[in-house]
Design goal:
152 residues; alpha+beta; Ribosomal Protein S5, domain 2; four-stranded mixed beta sheet; 4 strands; 14% strand; globular; RNase_P_CS; RNA-binding; Ribsml_uS5_D2-typ_fold_subgr; Ribonuclease P protein component
Length: 152
Amino acid sequence: MLPTEHRLRRREDFATAVRRGRRAGRPLLVVHLRSGATDPHGSGESVPPARAGFVVSKAVGIAVVRNKVKRRLRHLVRDRLDRLPAGSLVVVRALPGAGDAEHDQLARDLDAAFERLLGGVPRGCNPPGSATGSSRAAGSRNPGRDPGGSAQ
């Protein structure tokens, strides 16, 4: 179970995370992250902990399936709270395929979304040492396109 102090409950907090935060989409879920947001409802003296909320619509499945998806996502986020900056707001929105997905698939998608949001490789960039980025940088040729090896 997700501790009470780490739960998003207010509509305004959900809206802040979705509208003003960054988004990372995966095949089974979409994660919205508003880093370091201050708590508008608190005293402002201490930094509030990271808080998470979940959105699982009827498109995911019947009530039993939706509740199972929410329980799985709560468990997964609870284990990853220490990776989130203090005061951040997270909204995890399950997509229709999440109802049929295994626990490990949800975990992989959540980890990939957090990695992208928390400083992973930017979208559209090749990581250093990747096959497409390093081979062109090294000047290697594609033998399928230039069988003779002639200079262009």
